[in-house]
């Protein structure tokens, strides 16, 4: 309809009240404690009409459109109630609409807490919630599916273990539009997923790629280790040529072969190097190995004579 038709027009029929009957199969998320996940979508991202599979969701993670925070230990509601003002005649009227807000607590260690610290933001993400089996997200009036609009993500202080209490990290998330969660929600039941469950999703694992030899002039070997940045020992096995990027003076070069040794060690064969060349090694963006996602820091060395 054109703007002249819809301007100064409201629907006051109360039609949204339809749906209070109970002759249907009700849906609710289960307790998120223990198996819950937070799905943070890039602000404004909408799903396309494609098969909703694990490969599709991991592709969103690779593209930077989805962050998965797994292993919710507990959830606390900090939602505010509607604020009502009362006239001198005793008549109440809504003054301020309450907002949904939750605090999600994790017991995933200090490395996970460090990753959470980068999420501190306002207006950068949209939210979907999963209990590990089902997911609830936003569906707009136009039929676009994505996340609920987030305002503030507050990263709270890390608390160390004490007595019988484990160490914890937490974030608080507030939604800006209450109607999205109350009226414009959509859910995906785990019963409808054909090849995976939400519990199989995980975040991106950070890897250290550390050059271990001192490449010399005319040399063609660049040796490096690929291990977890969290414990510096868990090796990333099974890397192939396509998984690795070697740059010389800022330009990617052809890796003709990649030989795996022990404990996450690799030997990459590259074109002959020259003195003072700057050699960099990293994974090629976010890669998938054995169903898990990995990304790495970049290490660099200068070629010696």
Question: Layout of SSEs?
Answer:
Layout: H1 3-6, E1 36-42, H2 54-62, E2 66-77, E3 83-86, E4 92-96, E5 101-106, H3 110-117, E6 121-122, E7 125-130, E8 135-139, E9 145-146, E10 148-155, E11 169-175, H4 178-183, E12 185-188, E13 204-211, E14 221-228, E15 244-248, E16 251-252, E17 257-260, E18 265-269, E19 278-283, E20 287-289, E21 292-296, E22 299-302
Parallel strand pairs: 13-21
Antiparallel strand pairs: 1-2, 1-7, 2-5, 3-4, 5-11, 6-10, 7-8, 7-10, 8-9, 8-12, 10-11, 13-14, 14-18, 15-16, 15-19, 17-18, 19-22, 20-21
Keywords, please?
single chain; 305 residues; mainly beta; Immunoglobulin-like; 2 domains; 6-stranded antiparallel beta barrel; 6-stranded mixed β-sheet; 22 strands; elongated; disordered N terminus
* Poorly predicted regions: 1-10
Helical segment tally?
Answer: 4
Order of helices and strands: HEHEEEEHEEEEEEHEEEEEEEEEEE
Oligomer: single chain
How much helix is in the residues?
A: under 10%
SS strand fraction:
35-45%
Sheet with the most strands: spatial strand order: 1-2-5-11-10-7
Brief summary of the model shown:
With about 300 residues, the chain is mostly beta strands.
């Amino acid at each position: 309809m054109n703007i002249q038709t819809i301007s100064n027009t409201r629907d006051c029929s109360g039609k949204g009240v339809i749906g209070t009957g109970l002759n249907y199969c009700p849906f609710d998320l289960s307790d998120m404690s223990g198996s819950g996940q937070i799905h943070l979508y890039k602000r404004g991202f909408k799903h396309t009409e494609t098969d909703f599979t694990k490969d599709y969701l991991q592709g969103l993670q690779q593209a930077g459109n989805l962050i998965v925070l797994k292993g919710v230990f507990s959830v606390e509601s900090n939602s505010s109630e509607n604020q009502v003002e009362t006239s001198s005649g005793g008549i109440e009227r809504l003054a301020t609409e309450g907002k949904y807000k939750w605090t999600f607590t994790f017991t995933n260690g200090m490395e996970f807490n460090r990753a959470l610290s980068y999420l501190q933001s306002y207006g950068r993400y949209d939210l979907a919630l999963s209990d590990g089996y089902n997911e609830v997200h936003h569906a707009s009036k136009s039929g676009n599916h994505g996340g609920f609009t987030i305002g503030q993500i507050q990263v709270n202080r890390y608390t160390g273990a004490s007595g019988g209490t484990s160490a914890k990290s937490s974030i608080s998330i507030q939604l800006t539009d209450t109607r999205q969660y109350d009226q414009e929600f959509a859910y995906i039941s785990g019963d409808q997923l054909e090849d995976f469950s939400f519990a199989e999703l995980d975040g991106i694992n950070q890897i250290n790629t550390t050059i271990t030899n001192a490449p010399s002039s005319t040399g063609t070997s660049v040796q490096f280790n690929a291990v977890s940045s969290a414990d510096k020992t868990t090796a990333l096995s099974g890397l192939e040529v396509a998984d690795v990027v070697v740059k010389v003076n800022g330009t990617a070069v052809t890796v003709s072969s990649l030989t795996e040794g022990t404990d996450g060690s690799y030997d990459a064969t590259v074109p002959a190097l020259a003195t003072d060349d700057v050699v960099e090694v990293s994974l090629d963006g976010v890669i998938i190995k054995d169903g898990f996602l990995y990304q790495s820091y970049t290490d660099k060395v200068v070629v010696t004579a």
